[in-house]
Amino acid sequence: MRHQIVFVLLAVNFFHFGKAFALPATKGPILEKSRRRQHVINQPVQLSMSASFSADGSNIMLSEDDAVKKRVVVATTLAGTAAVTGLFLNHHIISQAVLTALRAYEGSLVKNPLRTKVMTGATLAAFGDYLAQMKEMKETNREYNVPRALSFAAFDSCYRMFQHAAIPFIVMLGQGHAFHSLLSSIPFVTMSESSLAFTAAMERTFMYQFALIPFFYYPIFFTFTGLMQGLNLQETFQRAKKSFLPCWTRNLIFWIPTQMIMFGLINENWQIPFVCVMGILWSMILSVVAGKAS
Q1: Measured between alpha carbons, how far is 244 from 135 in angstroms, rounded to an integer?
Q2: What is the chain's alpha carbon radius of gyration, rounded to the nearest angstrom?
Q3: Residue 197 three-state SS
Q4: How many CA atoms lie within 13 A of 236 on its CB side?
């Protein structure tokens, strides 16, 4: 069936391709003949003939520009459909390549989990900061700030080491029983045993966002990135004082639903890589809000 679809696509394209290139080759003599007739046919009749050609839907009176435009359109269509056809034929190869890459990455997570998570976090954090800086450069015509990018990559590397140890500890503490009992005590709310996984995700997210983030994540972030960008301790403190509340507010809006998904649905080995991928967006937000040393 797949080969039949490909054959039909190619047949349709070659038909239109041949039609577009054959038409201009045959209309030249006809145009020349109609020009010679202009010497013997008066203007009203000529206009009538032109109208009749248009009414018949013939392309004889097309200009050379129209023919060239038609060639370009058909050639572009042919190239696009050929590309789609190629992808259709090779989708199996592409999917196999993606699966192979994912299996290799999963194998690296098993053999070298800490190194893989640190490298993933640093790379994606620098990429997120790069996207944020590109946006700022377009608006302000500033140059790319290399120390700022390095500070994000270095901070994320160190934080992933801490996170590698912290997440299993949070998972061990947050089994869902406290939130399950709290919600069950609310009138007209019934919590079954099957909802324990949901309350466990709530507990872990709560501990992460209201304990780990304000008391560990942001002090390390502002200290590390401030010193790497050349600020002294007083300037670093003033920067943290100014940016902490806007950063934490955005942190809660972005990370509470993200970590609910992470703790509730994502396998533990893939939790930090999942956070790193989502961290591209977060690095952009953090870079815009608190990335500048000034």
Answers
A1: 22
A2: 32
A3: helix
A4: 16
